[in-house]
Amino acid sequence: MTMQTPALTAAWNAWIDAERLARALGDDDLVVIDARFELADPEAGEAGWRQARIPGARYAHLDRDLSAPAESGAEAALHGQGRHPWPRAAEFAVRLRAWGVTPAHRVAVYDAAGGALAAARLWFLLRALGHEKVAVLDGGWQHWLAQGLPIDREPPAPTASAAAPYPGDFDAGLLLDAPQVQAHLRAGGLLVDVRAPERFRGDVEPIDRVGGHVPGAVNRPFADNLRDGLSKPPAELAAEFEGLLDGRAPRELVAMCGSGVSACHHLLAMAHAGLPGARLFTGSWSGWIEAPSRPIAIGA
After folding, report:
1. Which residues face 31 on adjacent strands?
2. 96, 117, 134, 257: which is the annotated catalytic residue?
3. Which pLDDT tens digits describe the chain residue by residue (300 residues)?
4. Could you identify which of 65, 107, 284, 288 might form a hypothetical disulfide with 256, taking C-beta atoms 3.0 to 4.6 angstroms apart as the criterion?
5. Which residues are CB-contacts of 293 (< 8 A; sequence separation ≥ 6)?
6. What is the C-alpha separation between 64 and 241, in angstroms, rounded?
């Protein structure tokens, strides 16, 4: 076991740089999770993990492990579950057990999209469950490779865990469905859509059946959290988000995207900036449009 120093154990709760994670490999209290995923090819991420990964990394699949099965019917449409429904706590706890994660563990998660796909989603799943010691690898898989840090190309070994299912439940106050978002907007709350501007405006819509945005939402793309593939400094992010909040508390910001995945990148960036507490519209745009009666805005 690698001996830990205070510098290695402090503030393991937002982004973590590659060198720091490399020093921690082998610690008994560390679990690394590979969350690479491609919307266009949902099995490509797991295939990549099988070929090469950070040593010891388990694999988390966005559809199977970090989302619930999609439901249908009027009740599902009312709440706006979207393409990646938020999982039930009991089912997610079973996945955490399979990965060997307990409340005592530090968790490091990475993807190949700067954290903006499944890595930030897994980070927020754990934070909403009350797990504090979870961090996203800054720069992701590409930066790890570029730094020449260790990788494992051997076939992944089966993961066996004697741990009990992770205890606890999600903090429901952090998760909003479509009716709650409507109430939030009526009360003057801030809804921030992290999709690219052309999708927000409705110029293009490559995934969902209709384009546009929720009336009253404002646009700040998740890419604005990054520079050259790495997270912006905390002070810079704090200034940008404080300008967006315009005097509101961080909890008054609700983030959305296409399906409640990349929106988590804003929640991660705000935590990195010392502004934790923002919330998530879990169904996001794909959930909003499940009910045809909900209004749609086009343009800037």
Report:
1. 107
2. 257
3. 333 333 333 479 999 999 999 999 999 999 999 999 999 999 999 999 999 999 999 999 999 999 998 776 666 666 779 999 999 999 999 999 999 999 999 999 999 998 888 999 999 999 999 999 999 999 999 999 999 999 999 999 887 676 778 899 999 999 999 999 999 999 999 999 999 999 999 999 999 999 999 999 999 999 999 999 999 999 999 999 999 999 999 999 999 999 999 999 999 999 999 999 999 999 999 999 999 999 999 998
4. 284
5. none
6. 32
Give the pair of three-digit tokens for residue 99. Answer: 């990965």
Give the chain's domains with CATH numbers. 6-146 (3.40.250.10), 172-288 (3.40.250.10)
Q: What is the DSSP string of 212-243?
A: -B-TT-EE--GGGGEETTEEPPHHHHHHHHHH
Q: Would residue 257 show up in a list of annotated catalytic residues for this protein?
A: yes
Question: Residue 92 and residue 126: Cα distance in Å, rounded?
Answer: 9
Tokens coding 161: 């865990």
* Contact residues for 79 (Cβ-Cβ < 8 A; gap 6+): 177, 178, 179, 283, 287
Count the neighbouring beta carbons within 10 Å of the beta carbon of residue 286. 23
* Token duo for residue 148: 């020449």
